[in-house]
Amino acid sequence: MSADAGRQAPPDSDSPTLRGLLASVLAAVRSRPPSELGLVALPLPALLVGVNLLPGVEAWSFSLATEGVFESRWALWTAFASSFVHADTVHLADNVVNYWLLVAVAYPLSVVAGWRRRLLGSVAVYLAVVPLVSAWATVVALGGLTDAPTAGFSDVNSALLGYLVAVWFAALAAESGRSRSGGPPGVDPRWSVVAVFASLAVAYFAPSGAGYFPPLPAVGSLFAVGAVVAAVGLYAAVGRPRVAELDLAPERELLYVTGASVAAAGVIGSLVLVPFGSNVFAHLAGYVVGFAVPFVGVLVDGTADRGGG
What we know:
Number of helices: 11
Organism: Halorubrum saccharovorum DSM 1137
Order of helices and strands: HHHEHHHEHHHHH
Protein name: Rhomboid family protein
Structural class: mainly alpha
Transmembrane segments: 40-62, 99-116, 123-146, 158-177, 189-206, 218-238, 254-274, 280-300
Subcellular location: Membrane
Keywords: Membrane, Transmembrane, Transmembrane helix
Number of strands: 2
Helix content: 55-70%
Strand order of the largest sheet: 1-2
């Protein structure tokens, strides 16, 4: 979505509508090179479908009887490959749809934030790193308790969920920076860390549908304290987020509402109200890595700005 695509609302529009949002999205799609849109939307789903058509691919699931990710070459391979394997067609379709839903909001927000290259770079890191990190986290949490196999792309989708939280704040910071005519941004993208700490606190406080992941109030309290400390520090350093003066077009406002809704639903669906049998620890690992990768870029950007770079 181009930076100005959201302003193509009808002149008499004074409130966000679904029709206006769809018109804005279509205008934005036409403004982007088809190759770029195809690169975001098609290769990964095609890879997932192709892998699951291979004969004997179910053997690539990662066994929790394994003592460690680096126990053997086979253990290392299945730790990586299991993220691209699915139990059945419904499992595969669920992860493909979730991927499309996440990138449908993460991509236009990345364009607004000037993060198109960062999105592609982050996804490349997720594909290489998240499967191994999620397998390691699962072994640490559940290893020795069961020999069940684990598989699925939900750990990488959870990484995209973490990216979505980071880019949502970055896009809003870019909007506020432009609206304030070169002055300090009304929203600092570092506020995203408060949202992530708060969401992790909720995940550890709330009862989960997965019986092996009970509430852990002590851990939830640590994340809650982290959220408060981060919020106090940011308030002292940059002030509260200021968005009242942005004067965004209704469809652009709806983009942010949609992005926040997808992020909130994703956190609830992958970390809180989790169906029994889902690998919550893989989701947690993916979410944390998914946020940390772009957030490092946010910190680097801030250091460059303070250094005049």
